[in-house]
Prior knowledge:
Blueprint: H1 3-7, E1 13-14, H2 16-27, E2 31-33, E3 42-49, E4 52-59, E5 63-66, H3 68-74, E6 78-86, E7 89-93, E8 96-100, E9 105-109, E10 114-118, E11 125-133, H4 134-141, E12 149-151, H5 156-166, H6 176-194, H7 203-219, H8 227-234, H9 238-246, H10 252-274, H11 280-286, H12 292-303, H13 315-330
Antiparallel strand pairs: 1-3, 2-5, 3-4, 4-11, 5-10, 6-9, 6-11, 7-8, 7-10, 9-12
Helix pairs in contact: 5-6, 7-8, 8-9, 10-13
Amino acid sequence: MSQDASKNLLPPQWDYEAWRHLVRAMAGRFNPEGVDPKTFTGWLRRIDVYGLAAAEVGSNAKRVERSLRDVRLDSADHYIMIFQVAGKSAMTHNDQALCFDSGDVVLVDAARPVAFFNREPDKRWGSLTLVLPRRSFVSHLGFEPRGGLCRRGGTAAGRLLLDLIRSFGREEPASTLADSYMRLAAYDLIGALFAPTDLTSSRHADKLFGRVRAVITDGFADPNFGPCEAAAVVGISLRYLQQLFTHRGSTCSEFIYSLRLDHAKRLLLRRAALRTGQPLSEIAYACGFRDYAYFARKFRQRFGHAPGAYPESDGLASNEAVNARSSAEAS
């Protein structure tokens, strides 16, 4: 059968187990509820849209749930964008409840539980879904959207995106490079739909910033560690990482150097207390500095004296050294 002919057919229908299996293979564990498996009717047609998994999907189930157990079992690391194309639905997700109708679009974070409800139990619902890999999606957008968002039908970005997905396959086959550009165009349209008014002041951003700080705290002593590495570990773009720090009156590099210098001070106090004679260059490298001269300059700027001044530089430093020595002896 030709591709043109197949597009004119309705999506193939599946029984309860087959439908669950197809959905799970594409987007994770989702379970139809409120319907006898023997009378269940679902349909799904998988579409590859510029390297992204998409599908026309629907069923006669009264609700479809993804529980916390489902999330733990498959550890899906993606978002799911859903265009409602038939029927009226409701959703509970991320402590929010919302209703959406035909033409509306919602964003789901597959890493969190979600439940969908058919608001017209006597009718079937249908949707067009698009799976968005979290790392590449968030990195391109420069922010991490929150699941549970809804945009009503009629927005320019929504119309363009829906047409982009539906038109896939009506044109001549594109090259792999062209597909990558089209995929980024889809990301941009989704970003236009779900971009927050303030990227850095939400509770979600505060939680993300806490993750960034934890990653940096674990990695700052590595001389090869910097803002790019921190962004890669968290799975966000470098631009968004910098925005998180700028909004809080600092920069990522300043935070990294602050941790390195504080650690250096602790090691220098310990060196003075225990009289180990450890070379200062070793301490500098252990704190993430490759160049001792640069380390000494940054240290003097931060603390007002050279790294080698402990414990003779002043009374405060001497007292700190005594305290460090006492702590070391006690341990």
